[in-house]
Amino acid sequence: MQNPQKSFRRQKGFTLIEAMLSIAILSVGVLSFAAIYAQGLYYASLTSYDYVAQKKAEQAVEAIFAARDAGSLTWATIQNQSVDPQGVFMDGPQPMLQPGTDGLVGTLLDAGAPNEVIVIGPNSSGQLGTSSDQSVDLNPWMTRTILITNVVGETGLRQITVTIDYKVGKNKRSYTLVSYISSFS
Question: Residue range 30-48: average pLDDT?
């Protein structure tokens, strides 16, 4: 017969402290992934604003090319006003207004034009293309800067830089489009 005190064997397995420590480490990992996922969702939601900024910059550049090709802008007028008094484009950030009578954004003729508005969905009855469509006014939180500079060494070439600055929540974002325009179409 064995002594009951000597027959005590060490049991194998996890202690309560080890189990709690494992759960704590796992919890920190899961919470980290949840935070990364939430931040990813936030940045994914910004893509629609980035898309609007991209399209508004493209719209400005395409209108300049179209006006040059149609002859409504001469080479002398495709400049900022600070560079040449004949220049039609205003300097610095401008509010997002609909084009004036010249069909161009960022010019003196935009003064008094209504705010730029984009349609984001149909009206409450599901009809799209009505005056009651869901829309967003871009003017309070988005600005457009059109900067036209001469290319050094090239007399018939200018650089057009359109920058759209906007604020979403606490984040300030910016989209810049650079293009070149020549004096001939």
Answer: 88
